[in-house]
Description:
- It comes from Pigmentiphaga humi.
- By secondary structure, the protein is of the alpha+beta class.
- The chain has three domains: about 5-120, Orthogonal Bundle (Butyryl-Coa Dehydrogenase, subunit A, domain 1), CATH 1.10.540; about 120-225, Butyryl-CoA Dehydrogenase, subunit A, domain 2 (Beta Barrel); about 230-380, Butyryl-CoA Dehydrogenase, subunit A, domain 3 (Up-down Bundle), CATH 1.20.140.
- Helices cover about 50% and strands about 15% of the residues.
- It is built from ten helices and ten strands.
- A hairpin with a 2-residue loop joins β2 and β3 (about 145-160).
- The chain starts with 6 loop residues before the first helix and ends in a 7-residue tail after the last helix.
- Flavin-adenine dinucleotide (FAD) binds near residues 122, 157 and 365.
- The site of flavin-adenine dinucleotide (FAD) has 21 residues, from α4, β1, β3 and α10.
Amino acid sequence: MDFRLTSEQSMxxxxxxxxxxxxxxxxxxASDRTQALGKEQLxxxxxxxxxxxxxxxxxxxxxxxxxxxxxxxxxxxEQIPPSVSMSLVSQDGCIxxxxxxxxxxxxxxxxxxxxxxxxxxCTGSTEPGTGSxxxxxxxxxxxxxxxxxxxxxxxxxxxxxxCDLVIVTCLxxxxxxxxxxxxxxxxxxxxxxFEAREIDAIGxxxxxxxxxxxxxCRVPMENxxxxxxxxxxxxxxxxxxxxxxxxxxxxxLAQRAFDAALDYARTRxxxxxxxxxxxxxxxxxxxxxxxxxxxxLLCYDALATIDAGGPADGTSAMAxxxxxxxxxxxxxxxxxxxxxxGLSREARLEEYYRDIRMIPIPDGTNEILSLIHGRELxxxxxxxx
Length: 385
Ligand SMILES: Cc1cc2nc3c(=O)[nH]c(=O)nc-3n(C[C@H](O)[C@H](O)[C@H](O)COP(=O)(O)OP(=O)(O)OC[C@H]3O[C@@H](n4cnc5c(N)ncnc54)[C@H](O)[C@@H]3O)c2cc1C
C-alpha cells in the first residue's frame, strides 16, 4: 500500500490546478460572486475542461472520453472550484448515462457536442414533491401520434437553466394510462422548448441550480431512451463515484480555508506575538489539517475501491458524509483563526462556509448515506423499511 501520488498523478493534479488558475478563476472573479454564471461563461469553462478530457472522464478514449481511472479523475476534480465542478458532475452524469443507455444513433446525435464542451447537459430527476425517493416522481410522458408529450416539473437540477439538453426521468404512460414504469426521455431545448429558471440558494451562488416546467412539451419519439443491456452496471458505479467526488468538493473548500488560516496565523500579531505562536491556534490548525487529510484519504480510498471493482456503496457513502461533516467543521475553525476578518466577504471564508452547506444534499443526503452504509454493514434495509 502506497499513500503517495505517483509522479504522473502529481503532474495531472498540477496541470489542472494551473489551468484552473489561468482559465477558470479569472472567469469567476470577473463575475458577480452572488449570481449564477451565464451560459457563455460556463461554455468557455467547459471547453477548457474538455481539453483535459474532463467532460467525459469515465468514457473510454475510443469513445472520445478521458479514459481515466476514477482515482485519477478525483485527484484532478478536487482542484476545480465547486461552483464549477457541480456543473461538471451534472454534465459528466448526463454523458455517462447517455453512453450507458442509448443506442448508437442516439449516442451519435447527443454525445459529440457534450463531450467537446459545446453543449450543456443535465439530468432531471428531483421534483417539487419528491427527492430522496425517486419512485415518487409524477412527471409523465404520453404519446400523441409520433410525438412524445411531457408534463410535469423538475426542481433543484444543476445546469437546467442553461442546458441544451436534459435527460428527464418520467412515468411511462405511452401505452398504459396508469403505467408506473420509469423511463428517461432526452429533451433537446432547441426542438422542444420549456420554461426554466435559476433558484437562489445559500451557497455555490455562481453555480447553476434551477427548476423547469414541462407543459405539454413535445419531444420526438426517437428521444426515448431504451436501456441497452450492460448500462445498469455503468450507472450504478457512476452513482458511487459521484459521492466521493462531492466529498472532494468539501476538501477543496476546507483546503482553501486552511491556506488562508495558516497564512493569517503567521502574520497576525496580538499580545506581541504572531497568533500562530499560541498553542490553541496551533491546535486549531492541526485539527483543520487532520480533517482535510482524513477526508481526502477516505474519498481517494472510495475511488480506488471503485477502480478495483470492489463493493463501494458503503465506502462511497461514508466518504461523502464524513468529508462534508469534517470539512464543514474545518472551515468553521479556519474562520475563527481569522477572528472578525473571518466573517468578512473580503476574506471569502464565509463564502466557503455557505458553499459547503450545499454538499450534504445532492447524490444522497447525509441521512440517506448513513442508511446506505448501514445497509451494507448489516444487510438490512432501513430506507424503505
Ligand atoms: C447543489 C445541488 C445539486 C443538485 N443537483 C441535482 C441534479 O442535477 N438533478 C436532480 O435531479 N436533482 C439534483 N439535486 C436535488 C437532490 O438530489 C435532492 O435535493 C436530494 O435527493 C434530496 O431530496 P429533497 O431535497 O427533496 O429532500 P427530501 O428527500 O424531501 O428529504 C428531506 C429530509 O428528510 C430526510 N429523509 C428522507 N427520507 C429519509 C429516510 N428514508 N430516512 C431518513 N431520513 C430521510 C432527508 O435526509 C432530508 O434530511 C441537487 C440538489 C442540490 C442541493
